[in-house]
Design brief:
Layout: H1 33-40, H2 47-81, H3 84-133, H4 136-141, H5 144-186, H6 188-194, H7 198-235, H8 237-242, H9 246-299, H10 304-346, E1 367-374, E2 383-390, E3 395-399, H11 406-413, E4 421-426, E5 429-430, H12 436-440, E6 443-446, E7 455-456, H13 457-461, H14 470-479, H15 483-488, E8 496-497, H16 506-520, E9 524-528, H17 536-550, E10 554-558, H18 562-566, E11 570-575, E12 578-583, H19 585-591, H20 594-607
The structure holds uridine 5'-triphosphate (UTP) and magnesium ion.
The site of uridine 5'-triphosphate (UTP) has 15 residues, from helix 11.
Length: about 600
Amino acid sequence: MGFSIGSAGVRTGGPRGNLESYADKVDGKSFNLKVFKYLLVFVKPYTLRMVGAFIAMLVTTGLTLLSPFLVKVAIDGPIIEGDIEGLNEIALVMLLAFVVLYLSSMTQRYLLSWVGQKVLSDLRSKLFSHLQKLPLSYHDTHIIGVTISRVISDVGVINQLLSQGLITLIGDSILLTGIILVMLSLNAQLAVVTFAIIPVIVIATMIFAKYAKTAFRNTRAKNAHLIGDLAENLTGIRVIQAFANEGSTSERFDEVNAANRDANIEAISLSFIFLPTVEFLSMVATGIVLLFGGISVANGTISLGTVIAFLAYVNRFFLPVQELSQLYATMQTAMAGGERVINLLNTEPAVNDKPDAIDMPTITGHIKFKNVSFGYKDHVKVLHNINVDIAPGQMVALVGPTGAGKTSIANLIARFYDVTDGTVYIDDIDVRDVKQISMRQQMGLVSQDPFIFSGTIADNIRFGRPSASIDEVVRAAELANVHSFVDKLPDSYNAEILEDGANLSVGQRQLISIARAILADPRILVMDEATSSVDMVTESLIQDALKKLLANRTSIVIAHRLSTIVNADQICVVQAGKIIEQGTHTELISQRGLYHELHDRQFVELVD
Ligand code: UTP
Ligand code: MG
């Protein structure tokens, strides 16, 4: 075990303690005009295409209404009269109508899918860039998988509603009204008899809607839960395997999985009961038309053509009814999803640039904390009245027990969070007065757990300065003592790294993250030293690389390694959110306080 001052803290009350974020509070209205209006904004850029789709839909609907009528005209006229020429004409009109119908229906589908995919990717881009701006505190308290489910599934259903749904709703309503009107005008009496079935449809639909509302919303919640659990377990797979916890983790997953399955079965069963009901009613209606229509034809009060047209209309009548009920189910999930997505989009970044924020001038590196207090949550302070003054070019070490507040102090320098009281100054400018980007561009952070992105080694080193040439990358790698390792790889700097640097050792990851910081050449460097033990050779490579990294800039090092601390210009000992000792290594040792104690303890551990 190495020097254990302030090891990487395990956050208590972690994701599992925060399951409420699976079910963000939603209004639960089946149709929420506010949500709908908000989402419509995303369709707006494609208004022209939507209008095109709308026109195509009108044409399709019109022609769908027209064709049974043409059949009636053909039967009652030319067919009965034996007028071949007239029949030819009608057949031609019909052919023409079908060709146009074919084209309009194709256009409608094409345009809607096109707009749909655009809206989908726009919404996702917007969510992603918003997520990038959200405070770390948001990401600290929300389960990654659930956020992913917002961006992928919720956005998916919203899109279904916006693009397909909107047009389907209007188109089907027009079609239904049209069919009713045409039937009434063809023969009011037969129409009224046939429509005796409508109240039954309305009742069936209302019953369906009542159950569908909860059932379909439930599927979304369970789905988010499933994705959340999956993502968390995959992220924590090392711990799961290390603790041989596969059994109970699987059990937990099985539960979540079963709950998701049951919710879906329940929702789908509703459709499976409802849709055949509609089909059954459609057959009853057909029977009514055949019976009453047939009698009327026999009596000579209705023409044969009218009855045949009626049969066709009745047939067409039930398709939109089914479609609309499906749409209602989609709307349930989309409204809930929409509310959640809007909630997410409306979550304010906690740290905003002031409207009059200035660009940070070139930083010389003077950092000052003046009476700073801070809490992640308003009522629980984790830092109390911190005062530190760091001259340009100085190296300051923060040491102290785990959970003392070292990382929190570091977080305030780059303004990842805002102070509760007091002020953080960089070059005597309040960090709240400058644009965050202009400030962070001049700062570097090597975090406790360096993150390596998938991509090549060169890309990872270039992360802070994408424009760097390969020579500069190599030079940084040399300084970081990682060049000899990279050079031996078959693809050298173009070697692909797996996601999260899975194919690299911890030491290699640290060296690469140091090379990254060297290349970015920040004026201020914050280094949250990793605690993981590496072998002696790597350890000395890291120490050596660090020395080069820390030179010529102001640096704040959260140190776990004795050798790093000894050379610091200033050591701050942090305990319970306060700086309790401050001075150089020699001064603090002679004070015989906590630093002396921690130092002794490490010495004993080293001897062990
Ligand atoms: P720090 O994360 O600043 O502690 O948390 P530290 O000194 O760096 O600890 P090590 O050495 O890395 O382990 C300080 C306090 O702030 C709370 C923690 O619970 C701790 O008590 N905290 C931290 C939060 O409330 N929210 C956070 O997101 C992080
Ligand atoms: Mg820390």
